[in-house]
Amino acid sequence: MASNTEIILAGDIGGTKTLLQLAEFSGGRCDVIDERRFDSAAYAGLGPMIKDFLAARGGVAPRSACFGVAGRVSGRTADITNLAWRIDADAVAREFRIPKVALINDFVAAASGIEALTAADLAVLQAGEPEERGPRAVIGAGTGLGEGYMVWQGDHYRAFPSEGGHADFAPTDERQIGLLRFLRRKFARASYERVLAGQGLVDIYAFLRDAGAAPESAAVLRAMLSDDPAAVISHAALDESDMLAEQALDMFVDIYGAQAGNLALTVLATGGVYVAGGIAPKIVDKLRQGGFMRAFVDKGRFSGLLARVPVQVVLNARVGLLGAALVAGRL
């Protein structure tokens, strides 16, 4: 190992699974030494998991560590959503004698990992005209709606968090105005996260069903009773077997594109917009059909600007782990 190479520890920590990685960091890149998937619920905390992981490598001592956390990060501690853990960065540093330990939100980790992706990890929706070192934006629908942005600092992009997913939902046509009314009856306040998430797709489907947009299929209804309803609707829409599901996914995609365009305007994302999260890779064929980009650029006097912004879908599910590793190396 070269003298300027250091061993780093990275983690992508979720309520269901945790990925831990040891890597050599040198020259701004990480070379993986070992990586392992853990069942989060099988451990009482992160410490015992790290202990097992490092013991399998002969007790190697990392020089720095960073963990992307699916939950709220407050200072040097974090609570995991859907898991009875509290992670204390200082306690991890003391127990494993790691000089530098950082905790970051999982979406910040994903944004940080974009720099490590290759062309094979991305699906291009709009090539655009990227501005070198221009600000970048990242948006990702999944269980909720994550948003963030990246700014060039020195020799790399630094990612910053955002709660833009909780901004007020702004409908762009009469049907979406009806959806807003539907959501306000259910939630009192309708944010973009109420629409652009798995449950949001289910609510769009229910709104269109109640509005008589198309008849509900008995087969789809039965499937939703025994499987994830959002996945059922997506599958039925993608294989073009159900008109109501198709309309629901089309509306979802239109709103997704519109909010991605809003984010691009907010941070002036001349370096590009990256569509991450768990949903986009599963519906990438639908995203490529044009509705997403039509809504993205439909910004009146600023449509020309948005037509020059590169837009890509992140296909690599390990992007959060890649980001945590890069942050650990730069500590």
Write a structural description.
This protein is of the alpha/beta class. It has helices spanning 46-55, 89-96, 106-113, 174-187, 198-210, 218-226, 229-238, 243-267, 284-287, 291-297, 303-306, 319-330, and strands at 6-13, 17-26, 29-39, 64-69, 71-74, 77-80, 86-88, 100-105, 122-126, 136-141, 145-153, 156-162, 272-276, 311-314. It has a six-stranded mixed beta sheet, sandwiched between helices. α4 (174-187) packs across α5 and α8 packs parallel to α10 (291-297). The longest helix has 25 residues, at 243-267. The radius of gyration is 21 Å and the shape is globular. The two termini are 19 Å apart.
Output the keywords.
331 residues; alpha/beta; Nucleotidyltransferase, domain 5; Hexokinase, domain 1; 6-stranded mixed sheet; 5-stranded mixed sheet; 12 helices; 37% helix; globular
In terms of structural class, how would the helical and strand content be classed?
alpha/beta
What pattern of helices and strands is seen along the backbone?
A: EEEHEEEEHEHEEEEHHHHHEHHHEH
The CATH architecture classification of the largest domain is: 3-Layer(aba) Sandwich
Number of helical segments? 12
Précis, in short:
The chain has 331 residues and is α/β, with parallel strands linked by helices. 37% of the residues lie in helices and 27% in strands. The protein contains 12 helices and 14 strands.
